[in-house]
Specification:
With 464 residues, this protein is an alpha/beta fold. The protein has 19 helices and eleven strands. The strands form two sheets. Strands 3-2-4-7-1-8-11-10-9 form a nine-stranded mixed beta sheet, with helices on both faces.
């Protein structure tokens, strides 16, 4: 296998792009990546295009990459469409890496583009069901009901609510107008008509009950996992708030982040509960965006004179989840061990990391799974300041999914952009000092007790 380098990267600022199409977003990021790599589009020999929601939202179920890229003149070459839930962007990067590493291509492109903002918010949340086994949905929902709270959980939640006057704030919320209520009913009905083609009536009732409010069943799974960790190891909601506050601080330094405001741990705790113990500020928002990366072999790097900006891929690992119990080794720990072996490195050699934090608990868990701290000590590790800019191993200096944003098909490539930017020393006020090695972990979907897919990448700074 040949050595592979990243020579061009870009991430659009994540947020709302109501006046832009997937075609527009893809073109915007690709043009910037090509400029970063000092290349014309004709130099690209193969493309991997990541997107999850275009089919559900706009009917573009297939040939998405070909449709998205032809308007900007990228055609004729191999274009492979990638859908791997939230791990789609990193999966596209993995295959672009494989294309070069195998010797099949010299220059490849990975791009992810996603539009999640939609006039019907219920359609957005229902779209996340595609990250589960739809045919097994009745059993999955029965299992989710087992993830309910114990009496002790409810007691702690009620104490939290009283401490932060949660109900009082909710009572002060402005009531919806009749017009808004009618729109909600219409939107729910429109989603119901679509889902009834695949889901029976009883399952729809269970789904409606579990999906009440502005969250998907995924948040209930994260909430259950967080509660289990709290019971087993003594971690706390305050530690989760520290993680979320830290990531909001990081994102305030990132011009590409969806959220660029800071928030204190106390404000995180006082925010609206999504599912105990997760508040809204601990969860990734809905957003649009695109990101891309250009990869090549060492001879091409030298030919283009880009040694000073070429970031080496030390390891690229893609794996799938497996059937297991909560107590067995999870996918993040399993795949990171493979990545460490391939790179000849260990967790002690990683200077900073971008991890999949769809919730603050996700970051806590991955800090343990990737070996940055002992199992059960992720909350303590964050509380110590080790994961903040200037700490032992800064995590999610971009702001992470919680604050940078999470347009599904682009998120994994946004992580790659952050790693490359940091390793080149171009991150400005959020620059991690003296970094040589960075790591990215990106998971997607859920089957059983873990993610359905995951990628781990380890990158090395250019030789100066």
């Amino acid at each position: 296998m040949r050595e592979v380098y990243v020579i061009g990267v870009d991430t659009l600022k994540f947020g709302k792009y109501l006046d832009k199409s997937i075609k527009d977003l893809a073109a915007m990021t690709i043009v910037k990546s090509l400029k970063d790599a000092c290349l014309e589009k004709d130099a690209v020999q193969a493309v991997w295009f990541s997107n999850s929601g275009w089919g559900r939202a706009r009917g573009q179920d297939t040939i998405r990459g070909q449709v998205a890229l032809r308007p900007m003149g990228i055609e004729a070459i191999p274009i492979t469409n990638v859908e791997n839930a939230c791990a789609g962007g990193s999966t596209a990067f993995h295959h672009a890496w494989l294309g070069v590493a195998s010797g099949l291509y010299d220059i490849t492109l990975a791009v992810g583009a996603e539009k999640l903002n939609h006039p019907n918010k219920f359609a957005v949340f229902s779209g996340f069901l595609g990250g589960l086994d739809i045919e097994d949905l009745p059993n999955i929902l029965d299992q989710l009901s087992l993830y309910g709270m114990s009496d002790e959980d409810r007691k702690k939640m009620n104490e939290h609510i009283q401490k932060y006057s949660y109900y009082d704030k909710e009572k002060k919320k402005k009531s919806k107008t009749i017009k808004q209520k009618i729109k909600d009913y219409k939107d729910i009905f429109d989603v119901y008509v679509v889902l009834r083609q695949w889901i029976n009536k009883d399952t729809m009732k269970k789904l409606r009950k579990l999906s009440s409010g502005d969250h998907s069943p995924f948040m209930d799974v994260y909430g259950f996992a967080a509660r289990q960790h709290m019971k087993k190891y003594g971690s706390s909601i305050e530690q989760l708030a520290i993680i979320a506050s830290k990531n909001h601080f990081h994102s305030s330094l990132n011009p590409n982040a969806q959220y660029t405001f800071t928030i204190t741990p106390e404000q995180v705790l006082a925010d609206r509960l999504v599912t105990w113990p997760l508040t809204r500020a601990m969860c990734a928002p809905i957003g649009d965006g695109a990101a891309s990366a250009i990869l090549c072999d060492i001879e091409t790097v030298k030919r283009l004179g880009l040694l000073s900006q070429a970031v080496k891929v030390r390891a690229s690992v893609l794996g799938s989840g497996r059937q297991r119990s909560f107590d067995d080794i999870d996918i993040g720990e399993r795949l990171s061990k493979i990545a460490y072996e391939k790179s000849g490195l260990g967790p002690q050699d990683i200077h900073f990391a971008e991890v999949h934090d769809a919730t603050a608990y996700g970051e806590l868990h991955q800090a343990e799974a990737l070996g940055f701290c002992p199992g059960g000590e992720g909350g303590i590790f964050a509380e110590s300041g080790a994961t903040k800019l200037g700490g032992k191993i800064p995590i999610n200096v971009s702001g992470g999914l919680e604050s940078r944003g999470h347009p599904i098909g682009a998120s994994g490539l946004a992580q790659i952009h952050e790693l490359v930017t940091q390793l080149r020393g171009n991150a400005g006020t959020r620059q991690v000092t003296g970094v040589k090695i960075g790591m990215a972990e990106n998971g997607g979907g859920a089957l059983g007790q873990e993610e359905a897919a995951m990628c781990i990448h380890i990158l090395e700074a250019p030789s100066k």
